[in-house]
Every structure is written in structure tokens, then in C-alpha cells.
Design a protein that fits this description.
37% of the residues lie in helices and 19% in strands. The protein has 335 residues and is an alpha/beta fold. It has two domains: 190 residues, inorganic pyrophosphatase (n-terminal core) (Alpha-Beta Complex); 122 residues, Diaminopimelate Epimerase, Chain A, domain 1, CATH 3.10.310. A six-stranded parallel beta sheet has the order 3-2-1-4-5-6, with helices on one face. Helix 2 packs parallel to helix 3, helix 2 runs antiparallel to helix 4 and helix 4 runs antiparallel to helix 5. The longest helix has 18 residues. The chain is globular. The C terminus is likely disordered.
Length: 335
């Protein structure tokens, strides 16, 4: 169909010469790697493409090849013909302040989206926005290079948790099959994403796992990362997703509560769940938000008291959560 969003986006890209790509605050593997792939696709078409994000790139994604192409800061007013926003439910989600007069394209795979752009392409069936950009590339007759394929493959592996999350589908594997045929290196991506830890990170893992506690039923686990542990290891920022994954792997555990100390008596609580346990529903009850299996909120209080009261409330929420699970993708806070 000529008027479907993907076709309209192709037409606008072909009509434009100077294009800027941006993504959401606290960028992740999908947004970062897809941005890079999209930039190289645009250059293949003879376009001038820049990537400008508001927030810095977290570890280990700051080691992704070509990451130096991503600039950090604000998009200048009226420098580009077109602005493409990836995974942004609205403009404010990008952190960009100068987009009012731009022609905007909104590409997202989350349910909750404000459809704010001149062209909106939202596909909640896609496991990652990288799947959508691959389809866009096929429409544009892009000759996918190993460089482009690697970035898109990395994006999908990252957003599906190495094909372990519930958003993994046959479509994910089909696109990855094609990307491998185009030269993506599954070994290189696995090394970058999962085998790139520092000795300090492994020591921190031991500190955090030593705090593991379970409720009496055995379906809720809690772990804590104290600021003093980070300071003693001279760590300022660290990817903790794999720590939570280890706790979630315990047999019978439906939900992990990861207490991360921000300052004295203030904790960011990351929720990771599996099966029918709805992390978004639980976090919203505490004023937070997120996805079905990944969400978060912030609490204040004495750690010992919070560690007793919050799991008890979570257990009650899990009993009365809606039977029908719908992922709202309410990305309101960092988690």
C-alpha cells in the first residue's frame, strides 16, 4: 500500500537531504544500534545523516563499533530537512527541545505512543524498532552491508534479552536469519553485550547477590546494591541487568525487586518478572511505570523497613493483578 506509514517514510527520506536521528532518554541497545544502522542506510542513499541524543551512551554499548558517530546534546533548530525519532512516545521522551518546526517521523514498537509526528509508524508486534528499520531498508532497496546488519542484529539481541524475553517472536528470528546472511556476526555481538565485564563488575555482582532474600512463598526475591559497594569499587555507572537476571532465574521466583541506593534512605527499585507476574501493574501502584516484565519506581525510607514492607505489598498486588496482561509500555522513569 502506497499510503501505509512505512511507504510514506520511504518517500520522505528520499525527498530529504539532511536528516537527523534521535532516540529516547537513557538510550538502550535497540535505540543506539538501530540509529547507527539507519544512519548508514541513509548514507547509502546519498543523504547527510547525523545522530544526536540527549543522554550519554551506557556501558557496554559505548564499545559498539561506530558509536563515535553519535553526538550528545541538543538538535539545532532548522538545520535539517527531517527529524526521525526512534522509540519516543512523545517529543519530550527524546529530551530534545528544538523540534517544533521540524518535519517529524515517529517510529516506535511500544503500545503507548502519542502519535505526535507528521508520519507515525507504531508496530507493537515488532520485538525491536530494529525489525521495523530492517523492513524499511528492504522497501528502500538498501544493499545491507555487514556493518548495517551487525547493528540491527545487536539491537534485536539486546531488546529481546538474547531471545529470552516475551517479545521474542518468529519474526525476530526471521529478521536475524536475514541479517546473518548479510554478514552480521553473532559471536562478535555476544562478546560485546555479554562477555565484556570488568573485574570490578564481577566483584559488585558478589556484593549484590550476598544480599539476596526470599519471601516465605519463594516467589519474590530481593537484592540490594548499596552506594558504598559502588564507591569502594570505584564504579560510577554499571549495567546491572545481568545481576537481576541471575536472581530471576531462581526456580519459583516470579518477581525480583532490586533496591539500588541513590542516596541515604532513597532507593530506585527495579522490578523484573516472568510468566504472568505484571511488573508494570506493581510499579504503577508505587507511582512508577514500565513494561510487563521490566519496570521500576523510587521509594524513600529505612532499608530494613522497606525490605519488609514492600515485598509484602507486592505479594498482595500479584494476587489481585488483572488476569489479562497488556503491556502498556509506560516508560516514565529509569529502571
Amino acid at each position: 500500500m502506497k499510503n501505509d506509514p512505512a511507504s510514506l517514510i520511504c518517500q520522505k527520506i528520499l525527498e530529504s537531504q539532511r536528516i537527523v536521528v534521535t532516540s529516547h532518554l537513557r538510550p538502550d541497545g535497540d535505540s543506539i544500534c538501530t540509529s547507527l544502522a539507519l544512519a548508514f542506510m541513509g548514507e547509502f542513499l546519498g543523504k547527510e545523516v547525523e545522530i544526536i541524543n540527549k543522554d550519554k551512551i551506557p556501558f557496554p554499548l559505548n564499545n559498539v563499533p561506530d558509536v563515535e558517530k553519535i553526538k550528545i546534546g541538543q538538535i539545532p533548530a532548522q538545520r535539517f530537512d527531517l527529524a526521525i525519532l526512534l522509540e519516543c512516545a512523545n517529543v519530550s521522551r527524546s529530551g530534545q527541545e528544538n523540534l517544533d518546526n521540524y518535519f517529524k517521523i515517529n517510529i516506535d514498537h511500544h503500545h503507548s505512543n502519542d502519535y505526535y509526528a507528521d508520519i507515525n509508524w507504531v508496530d507493537p508486534e515488532a520485538s525491536a524498532v530494529a525489525e521495523m528499520i530492517y523492513a524499511l531498508g528492504e522497501k528502500l532497496n538498501i544493499q545491507f552491508t555487514p556493518q548495517m546488519a551487525n547493528h540491527l542484529y545487536c539491537a534485536i539481541v539486546s531488546d529481546t534479552g538474547s531471545f529470552q524475553f516475551s517479545n521474542t517472536s518468529s519474526r525476530s528470528f526471521n529478521v536475524c536469519h536475514k541479517l546473518l546472511d548479510h554478514g552480521a556476526s553473532s559471536i562478535q555481538i555476544a562478546e560485546l553485550l555479554f562477555n565484556n565485564n570488568s573485574p570490578e563488575k564481577i566483584k559488585l555482582l558478589g556484593h549484590v547477590l550476598s544480599t539476596l532474600q526470599m519471601n516465605q512463598k519463594g516467589n519474590i526475591a530481593t537484592i540490594t546494591m548499596f552506594k558504598k559497594s559502588m564507591d569502594s569499587l570505584q564504579l560510577k555507572e554499571v549495567d546491572t541487568e545481568d545481576i537481576t537476571t541471575l536472581a530471576r532465574s531462581i526456580k519459583g521466583v516470579q518477581m525480583v525487586l532490586f533496591f539500588k541506593e541513590i542516596e541515604k534512605n532513597t532507593f530506585r527499585v527495579s522490578l523484573r518478572s516472568k510468566g504472568k507476574a505484571n511488573a508494570a501493574y506493581v510499579s504503577e501502584s508505587f507511582g512508577g511505570g514500565g513494561h510487563i516484565h521490566a519496570a521500576g519506581f523510587t521509594v524513600t525510607g529505612e532499608h530494613k523497613k522497606l525490605l519488609k514492607e514492600i515485598p509484602e505489598k507486592v505479594a498482595q498486588l500479584l494476587k489481585k493483578q488483572p488476569k489479562k496482561i497488556q503491556d502498556k509500555h509506560k516508560d516514565t522513569i529509569p529502571y
